[in-house]
Amino acid sequence: MPTILIIDDEQDILDLLSYNLKKEGFSILTAKDGISGKEAARNSNPDLIILDLMLPGIDGLELCGILKKDPKTALIPIIMLTARGQETDKITGLETGADDYVTKPFSVREITARVRALLRRTSKEGAGNEVYDFEGLHADLSTHEVKLNGRVITLSPLEFRLLKFFITHQERVYNRDQLLDLVWGDEAFVEPRTVDVHIRRLREKIEPEGARLIKTVRGTGYRFSME
Questions:
Q1: Are strands 151-152 and 145-148 parallel, antiparallel or unpaired?
Q2: What pLDDT does 186 receive?
Q3: pLDDT of 16 above 90
Q4: Is residue 208 reached through a cis peptide bond, with omega within 30 degrees of 0 on the bond before it?
Q5: Residues 200-224 as b or e (16 or more Cβ within 10 Å = b)
Q6: Distance (Å, rounded) from C-alpha 49 to C-alpha 79?
Q7: For 162, how many CA atoms within 13 A lie in the half-sphere containing its CB?
Q8: Residue 17: is its pLDDT beyond 60?
């Protein structure tokens, strides 16, 4: 039974999500501020976190960044929940490390669908028994181990999926819509602009100094090359 941690300071939201997600078979933990939410995430290691943006103590954006930088919690998928709906807020949330973004008001069916979709996308997949090396980058697809210049790099499940796709489909150009279909899957609730955010984050983590593994093809999309 997957465990979901809901961090929100509105009791009505906690009650609504807890009740309905329990009905769907999930185990639920809750926290009402950023500090207790951080401790709950570290101590309980949930399968997914629903995180409100506006929180007392530590706000949602700051907490998301803390959790994604902590090796104990970095791989836990996060759905950011907020009343803000502007595109800049969505991009900021994604850049901080959130895996998905939902604006209030929302439907319970939408939240449930997004939770299930994100859990499917981030579940462990069978990876090929292949190891790739390019200058300082080392990627073992069978163990999900990625290193840059000998230092272990922590990638989110989605970042690893994206890297694995690029590594196994080198030299071909893919546009945003193709990447959404092939990496995020047909259950994705994301916009094409989201692809740019995740590729920028992946570049920052895996590209050796002076190298450009993920190349932007102007007006078309992206191409990965280890040549």
A1: antiparallel
A2: 59
A3: yes
A4: no
A5: ebbeeebbeeeeebbeeeeeebbbb
A6: 6
A7: 28
A8: yes
pLDDT tens track for 176-211: 888 888 888 755 566 778 889 999 999 999 987 767
pLDDT in tens, 147-165: 998 899 999 888 998 998 8
Residue in the block written with tokens 């998905």: 100
Distances (CA, A) of 152 to 45, 55, 139, 146, 213: 21, 32, 10, 6, 18
Q: For residue 120, is pLDDT > 80?
A: no
Enumerate residues 6+ apart whose C-beta is below 8 A from 211: 134, 135, 137
Helices 34-44 and 60-69 pack at an angle, to 10 degrees, of 30
What is d(CA 199, CA 222) in angstroms, rounded to the nearest whole number? 9
What letter represents residue 181's amino acid? D
Range of weakest confidence among 83-87, 100-104, 124-128: 124-128
- What is the value of pTM for the model shown? 0.62
